[in-house]
Amino acid sequence: MFDFNTRVVPYLTPLEHEDIVRLLERDGLSFDEGADAIALVDDIDGNIAATASLFGSVIRMVAVDPARQESGLSAMAISSLMEASRMNGSSRLFLFTKPETAPRFASLGFRNIAETSAVSLLETGAPGITDYREYLAERRVHDAGGPKIGCIVVNCNPFTLGHRYLMERASEACSRFYVIVVEENMSRFSFEDRYEMVRLGTGDIRNMTLLRSGPYAVSSATFPTYFLKDRGEKSAALQQTRLDLALFLRLYVPALGINVRFVGTEPMSPVTNMYNDAMREVLVPSGVEVVEVERMPSEFGDPVSASAARAAMDSGDISRMSSYLPAATLDYLKERRLI
After folding, report:
1. Is the CATH number of domain 130-335 3.30.70.270?
2. Would you list the DSSP string of 288-314?
3. Residue 262's beta-bridge partner residues?
4. Hey, CA dihedral for 308, 260, 274, 228, is it positive or negative?
């Protein structure tokens, strides 16, 4: 492609920003701030003909001038981001693209791991989804002893009595259930701390298996809007919920034999409430029952939630903390000087 030049920049000039916004809008995409690196493909006259952006390990905002769609320019932009990522020591990348364009990137090593009618999620590098399937296979309990195999996906920021209540309901209803802790480190407490709080608070629930999610459940790759709850782009959030659930059906359901998913009611979070609605829409027709459990009330009359627990921590209200958090969580947070 001798008529084009590819460059990777950490930020855009005002003129470049205007050009990229126009390019994305022509392709039905919106511009997102916060990219770690932006690839620009310039034509011989210095006009931007294609672009792609890297957000952590996720390539997004891929767009090409409509007059040059068949020129392989998107592959040039993505290849430059892959090289930049490798130079920074990271080989595993995810790519958001449209289903009709997904096959174009097989030559770059990308494989399709989840898809909806509107978006495909591709992956390249290692460790990958095959490695994670092996992890799930090692953790699967095959002699569960009953027909219901449940699942709960949680962030637990921090682990509350409400989370414990939901797990107790799953324990009563299932012969075996799996708790998948979101591994993304975009919360107040690290994944290691959140996972340990769940482990310490559930050791007596004998039919429960605790799992890490990798980047395959409610992550910045599968569901970035979850971590931007104040953002008003409902259509984007809805597409991301469906993509996350499509991956859940393709990965977790067959790997663990799951046929019921438990979730708490979400009166305070529009994005999470949207996710609960999408679960019924996507999972139920595929044979996975969705059980929504009413939130546990605190002694103060409000629903027990992680956000309420964090507010109590911020105000130093020990009484309220004790109403929201198991003793094991409180002890852990105190020992680690996290409160």
Report:
1. no
2. -EEEEEPPPBPTTSSBP-HHHHHHHHH
3. 291
4. positive
Nearest to 52 by CA among 26, 33, 80: 80
What whole-number distance in Å separates Cα of residue 277 and Cα of residue 1? 47
Q: Do domains 5-125 and 130-335 have the same CATH topology?
A: no
Integer Cα distance of 265 and 294 in angstroms: 5
How confident is the model over 249-269, as pLDDT tens digits? 999 999 999 999 999 987 667
Segment 100-152, tens digit of pLDDT: 889 989 999 999 999 998 889 999 999 999 999 999 999 999 876 789 999 99
The domain ranges of the chain are 5-125, 130-335
Task: For residues 132 and 242, give the distance between their C-alpha atoms in angstroms, rounded to a whole number.
Answer: 21
CATH architecture for segment(s) 5-125: 3-Layer(aba) Sandwich (3.40)
The Cα–Cα gap between 173 and 264 comes to 15
Relative to beta strand 37-42, strand 5-9 is antiparallel
Give the start-end residues of each E strand in the chain. 5-9, 37-42, 48-55, 58-64, 93-97, 111-115, 120-124, 149-154, 176-181, 208-212, 260-264, 289-293
pTM of the complete model: 0.90
- Among residues 234, 243, 283, which one has the least CA distance to residue 263? 283
Alpha carbons 121 and 101: distance in angstroms, whole number: 11
